[in-house]
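lol forgot to send this yesterday, sorry. struct tokens for the thing we talked abt
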């Protein structure tokens, strides 16, 4: 198929922060695409050392560099990058992830072929910090997010696939139409900004195309946001809780089915508990308690929330050793 729309057709955004080695590999994977009608917007969120020289070393006029004067967080950084985009489509690539050579060609072609589709996404591989792909972890990830049950083709609607199963990985393995993105809403989604983009695509009422090939590569390493929010990083847990509260409230309000609404109401309750636990780790016990009570108003028998509420009334000298445990049983939650 020959694509003849005005160039650049695809705006590839790469938000980055303090990961120059990974960033170099991410940019290279975009330049290596079989589909070449793109621009790349590298948006540096105030890294300790600017990556501008690294970006310029590629000597490609399609690569544009912007840098925030201070660190503004991933949601604002991504928003600024999309705001600068000129393409018909937006494809996001985390600075520590990569694409295979046919990623853009296969996903953009499906969107150009079907004007009633809002998004195209694919399966992806999981690799370690050094870039070694794990077949076992890749399969496990596909099963966890429901892609093992999907066949290549069109899904309409895809609300459950995109938001409940979380099969659509927007920040690494999807291409979305630019005109459905409401940028004014995005910053409030915080670290869930890409999840919120999937929601915006779902609420458009249009369909999605899925390619079952693993056309992207997601890197698991200790400094990723997903790893930090599940560990002892207090601020990462607070960021995750705040993002969840904002997103799940909106997902529930727009849910097309009562059971999906109930699902996101429960997720909203869990997010309140997550935020409260983060605040308690930051020794903000009085600030945390209302979030626990909000959580119990929707999910009154949740042991994780009840245990955290009990801890919030104990002396700090007793609470600190428990609340800062890496995996303190009732204070942790599987996805």
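and heres what i got for the seq, position by position
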């Amino acid at each position: 198929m020959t694509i003849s729309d005005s160039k650049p057709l695809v705006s590839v955004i790469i938000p980055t922060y303090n990961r120059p080695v990974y960033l170099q590999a991410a940019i290279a994977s975009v330049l290596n695409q079989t589909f070449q009608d793109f621009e790349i917007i590298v948006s540096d969120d105030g890294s300790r050392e600017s990556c501008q020289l690294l970006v310029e070393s590629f000597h490609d006029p399609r690569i544009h560099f912007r840098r925030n004067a201070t660190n503004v967080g991933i949601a604002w950084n991504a928003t600024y990058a999309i705001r600068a985009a000129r393409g018909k489509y937006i494809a996001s690539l985390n600075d520590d992830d990569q694409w295979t050579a046919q990623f853009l060609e296969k996903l953009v072609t499906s969107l150009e072929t079907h004007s009633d589709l809002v998004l195209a996404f694919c399966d992806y591989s999981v690799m370690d910090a050094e870039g070694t792909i794990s077949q076992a972890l890749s399969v496990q990830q596909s099963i966890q997010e429901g892609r093992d049950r999907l066949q290549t083709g069109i899904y309409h609607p895809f609300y459950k696939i995109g938001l409940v199963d979380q099969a659509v990985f927007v920040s690494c393995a999807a291409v979305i139409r630019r005109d459905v993105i409401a940028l004014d809403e995005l910053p409030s989604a915080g670290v869930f900004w890409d999840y919120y983009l999937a929601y915006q695509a779902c609420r458009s009422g249009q369909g999605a195309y899925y390619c079952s090939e693993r056309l992207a590569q997601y890197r698991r390493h200790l400094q990723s946001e997903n790893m930090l929010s599940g560990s002892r990083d207090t601020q990462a847990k607070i960021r995750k809780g705040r993002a969840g509260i904002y997103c799940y409230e909106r997902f529930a309000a727009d849910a097309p089915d009562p059971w999906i609404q109930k699902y996101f109401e429960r997720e909203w309750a869990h997010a309140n508990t997550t935020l409260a636990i983060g605040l308690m780790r930051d020794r903000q016990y009085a600030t945390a308690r209302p979030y626990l009570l909000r959580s119990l108003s929707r999910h009154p028998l949740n042991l994780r929330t009840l245990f955290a509420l009990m801890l919030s009334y104990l002396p700090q000298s007793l609470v600190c050793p428990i609340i800062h445990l890496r995996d303190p049983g009732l204070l942790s939650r599987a996805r």
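The longest helix spans residues 258-281. anyway ping me if u want another try
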